[in-house]
Amino acid sequence: MLFLLLAMLGHTTASTVPSPHEYRLRFFHTHTGERLDVVYRRGDQYVPEALDKLDHFLRDHRTGDVRHFDPHLFDLLHDLTAALGDSGGEIDVICGYRTPRSNEFLRTRNPHTGVAQHSLHMQAEAIDIRLPGIAISELRDAALRLHRGGVGYYRSLDFVHVDVGRVRHW
């Protein structure tokens, strides 16, 4: 009887409430060989345990150091893969977080690689990626169209850098 009354008043029960949209990302880390398939957000709520898993997965693979990532980077990746029609696809991670020491090592080891002295990788606001089966030029163009941060195109190294800093490209 209560159900009927609630239904007549326009209320819904828990079983009829639509579940919030799930935001899923799938990754393969090219340096560690690890994979991660995670729902990091439901509706407009980030999932703390999932963010912890992402932080660990994207750790500095040289040192093992972990830093908390800006979750907006994950939203950017989700929207980027969706824009390419590859929202269920796996993202190859070339580089996530870098400690200042790792960053300096890469920067001085080969000055022509484009590693910035104040890289957003050190702030856990950047990631270098590729999507298997999608040309990196197409990945770059889709990231540029989103207009949501920095986009670096590294054709000879076969990856694209995206970050949640100011809008710019190179």
Describe the protein.
Helix content is 30%, strand content 24%. It is an alpha+beta fold and 170 residues long. Strands 3-2-1-4-5-7-6-8 form an eight-stranded mixed β-sheet.
Topology:
Elements: H1 2-8, E1 22-29, E2 35-42, E3 45-46, H2 48-57, H3 71-83, E4 90-95, H4 100-109, E5 126-130, H5 136-146, E6 150-154, E7 159-163, E8 168-169
Parallel strand pairs: 1-4, 6-8
Antiparallel strand pairs: 1-2, 2-3, 4-5, 5-7, 6-7
Stretches where pLDDT is under 50 for at least 5 consecutive residues are 2-7
Overall residue-averaged pLDDT value = 90
Shape: globular
Determine the N-to-C terminus distance: 65 Å
Helical fraction equals 25-40%
Approximate strand percentage: 15-25%
Structural class: alpha+beta
Largest sheet: 8 strands, mixed
Q: Please provide the count of β strands.
A: 8
Radius of gyration: 19 Å
Order of helices and strands: HEEEHHEHEHEEE
* Spatial strand arrangement across the major sheet: 3-2-1-4-5-7-6-8
